[in-house]
Amino acid sequence: MVIGTDMARRVCGSLQSAGHHVGHLRRPTDEDLRVALDGEVAGVAILLDDDVESLRYALAAEHIRPNVPLVVTIFDKTVAEQLRRVVPNCRVTSPAEVAAPVLLAACLQPDLLALIPAHSSGGPGPGSHPAPVHLGARAEGDTVRLEAHRTPRSLRIRARSGKIRGQLRPHDGSSRILLTGLAGILAVLLADWTWAVALRHRAPVEALFEAARTVSAVGPAAAHGSDTYLMFSAFAMLMTVVFTAVFTAGMVDRLLAPRSVGILGPRALPRGGHVVVVGLGQVGLRLCTELQGLGVGVIAVERNPAAPHLRLAKALGVPVVVADATDRFVLRRLGLHQAEAMAAVASDDRDNIAVSIASLAVAPELRLVMRAGDHDAIAETRSLFRIGPVHDLNILSAAYTTATLTGLRPRTVMAHGRELLLESDGTFASWPHPDRCTHAQEDRETIPSHTR
């Protein structure tokens, strides 16, 4: 039994090609689901984009037919963990989880097919903890082998340097106004303190006190001294009023407007050794967190200011620029010439094509990774432009789900040329490309109760 739309059609078609009897429902009612599960059922795949819908159907299927093997796509890790705890016979995954290893490898090293999460012990001593590492799947002729992979030291150094250079380098206008006002106030304070120490021979602490009075527009402690100093103090107080107004304007704008980019800290935009991820959906957010886990800086670009994952990205320390990534001015400000790669992973294939072509116009040597399907426009674009690796997430997820339903335990799915490979416990097996089924895609579909 398969529930869902496009990816579900591929899973259904692949199972049919293997000789299985498959029932396919798009979004069934409770009664449709009860009828469909009335009989022998070998497994149920719930392949929807909405976590709430997926959870509801999973619990309903478990209630109607307890202990039936379930494969459910859920992005939220907390929901996924709770579902695994409540329904032990459930295998929870998501297109983002399946696609992350191949996208991660393509962003970091073009000769890798996938970077598979693994764990190795941190040492034999007491209190040691597992240190996260990755296994790299590397092609060697017609074969593929796994090897321990760690982020190259040179890349870590470039990423760390890019993060440092990105501190106090604002991306938007309000941040520049804020820093300009703050820099002006500090410059006046330093100039007055220097004058008092060097020319008036004040003690440093006393000079700091008088400089603070000047900056706060109170004036020197006493109106004595040379006419030149008094004129300087008057001018400094007037300039402080201006700089304070500029600083206040920038601060108010930053406090009132939603911001996903910081001036200082982990959410400041890196200036080198980073990966630009366009599209902050489930796949984009997962890719950003995986890159950060490897010590690589990221910049996420999202066009929709009301995107549902903006708040989560902010909590995870991912800097997000809300802008149109097809705009060359925006791309230049993202530092593409100093970036390691750009990954266009938005949900719309044509948007990803437009972003890739615009990026090549700004940085012709940039490594590009693109999420796309099997549209004719992809082949046409690849024949004209060097757009880099193209990954069809629906095909990868459908192959993973189909293998799971048939009793396999794949860890990841990757593309090697025109071939799909399933990796499980260090072994690789070829897998056919899933074709879409011929079931009618209506809002409500019914199937005979004897199908499975």
Summarize the structure.
The protein is α/β, with parallel strands linked by helices. α5 crosses α15 (393-405) and α7 (173-198) runs antiparallel to α9 (227-256).
Describe the protein.
The structure is a single chain. The protein is an alpha/beta fold. It is built from 15 helices and 17 strands. The longest helix has 30 residues. Helix 5 packs across helix 15. Strand 15 and strand 16 form a beta hairpin.
CATH level 1 name of the largest domain: Alpha Beta
Strand order of the largest sheet: 11-10-9-12-13-14
The average pLDDT is 82
Number of DSSP-assigned strands: 17
The secondary-structure class comes to: alpha/beta
Provide the CATH architecture of the largest domain.
3-Layer(aba) Sandwich
Q: Tell me about the biggest sheet?
A: 6 strands, parallel
Strand content: 15-25%
Q: Helical percent range? A: 40-55%
CATH topology of the largest domain, by name, is: Rossmann fold
- What is the approximate shape? elongated
What are the low-pLDDT stretches, counting only 5+ consecutive residues below 50? 120-132, 442-452
Computed CA radius of gyration, to the nearest angstrom: 29 Å
